Every structure is written in C-alpha cells, then in structure tokens.
Amino acid sequence: MMCHLDNSLVQCNHYHEMSPESVSNTFADFDFDNFICYGNDDDLILPNQINDNNNQNGDSQPSTRKSSYEELEVPVEISDAVKVHINKFMSGEEVKEKDLYLLNDYERCVVKSIQIKKTKPKTKEQNNKQVMRPAFKKLQDKFFRSQLKKPNKKKLQSKEKDQNQFYEHYFGEIKNNEKISIENFYQPIKKSKKGSQRTYNQNYLKLTLKSQSFREDLLAYVQSQFLEEQQVSRDKKIDELLKKCRKLLAKLGKGEKDREVQLEELKKYILNNSKMKLPWSNSELNSAKKYFETMISQQS
Prior knowledge:
The protein is mainly α. Helix content is 50%, strand content 4%. The protein has helices at residues 20-26, 82-90, 105-117, 124-146, 163-178, 202-208, 212-254, 259-272, 282-299; strands at residues 2-5, 8-11, 35-38.
C-alpha cells in the first residue's frame, strides 16, 4: 500500500496490520487534507472515483459501490488502537484532533467523552478512598505475612488473616485512650455495623492518622508504591471500560439504531452511567499523593 503526501511517496505497509503505537507515530505529522491513498502501486483510488471493474468490461449495470469514503459503511467496533490515545491522555500528554484521524467515529467518541468527564475534579472523599483502599490492602498483607513462619508463600489463607489483630496492631492504643470500639477503625463498607465508618470521609481519615505507626507506614506506601501500582493497574481498567462500551454497541446494534443515535447513547453512557468508572489520570493520582502527604504532615 502506498500513500501520496505533498508529492512524496511513503510505504504504509497496510497500517491496519501495524501496532497502534506504530500507526500513531507513522501518521503523527501528516497533512491529511492533501492525503491520497493507493490500493496498490498501479491503481489510484480517489474518494469520489471508486468504480467497479465490471464497468470497464462493458457491463451496462450501474455501479453498486459508494461514491465517497464518507458513504462507505463503517463497522460498529472499538478496537484496541484506541487504548494508545486513552493512555496518552491519562499520562498527561496532549491528544490532538489529528491524532484521532485513524480512529472510527465510535473510538473518537470514547476518547472525547473521557476527556470531557475528566474535567470534573475529585472530592476529598474520593482521594481518601483511592489511596487508603490499596494502602490497607498492602499493609494488611505485610502484617499478616510477618506473623507467619513462611512469609514468602504466594497466597495467604483466610485463617491466616486475623483482621482484628491487624487493627489492634495499628489502632489498639488509640482505641483504649479514647474508649471507643476497634470497629471504628475498620475500613468503611456500605453495610457497616453501628459505630463503624460508612465512607472514607475526613472524620475517618483524621481518626486513623492519630496512630503514629499507621501514619509512618501509610506515608511510606504513598511515596514509594502508590503511583506505580495505580499506573500498572490502569491498563486493566481501560480494558474493562472498552469491554463495557463494546457490549453497549452490540446491544444498540441489535435494535438497528442508526449511527448518530448509537454515538449519542455511547457518549451518555460514558458521561452519566454510575457504573462507568474511569481510571485515574497521572494528574489526579499526583494530586491525591500530595494531598495525603500534606494530611499526614499536619497530623505528625
């Protein structure tokens, strides 16, 4: 496949077989207004000059092919190529309109909807939850393993996880001094017992940060592991996001809704559906990290 741009020829090597990163890099600086694509080295295909070969053989039947690229049917699909642009945006890099040229309408809709949704700032409670949930998981695993004769085993059994012992280790002294139940320090859950926290609010954060040992271990996690772990897990979250979008389009396709309706439904789904959780961007993660460093410093 050959491409003509500003009187020069470039070998495209069938960009649809290339990796998304290669495609993005190959076409990053192309002026697509002057772009002409060749099907092979001999036959030139113009947007408004797509004709059947049968007409050249004297066939009097009119051509059934479309007269322009805009009229050609685009498959309803969201390929993994879109992940390159989502990751680029999540990393804080600018995603320009020309970067999205090789994406179809549905893929562009996904990227632009994510950009719109990400303009809403995170709340303090969201920051608390984003940091403390993985922190508790990491600190619990470290604590439980420290109690074993073989701390390097791959997976811990339920009987090896004494939750109450973990909370007593970090918060037992605070519990005794303030004469409150240890359950007040349990991680918030929607259906919690009386006296325990239901959300990662400021009261819960301030209560747990009264423990010096917890503050020190939490700060160590935030500064050394938090960002890296969150960035690594982001790929899986993006895959899950795209999976949900594909399911929606499959459902809309069965109802034979037209393309504009499908795009609008896809946009609303990403922007408004409570189950459509977007992974955190580097900017959001860094803000949460700095926020926790400040909170821990104030409690010290």
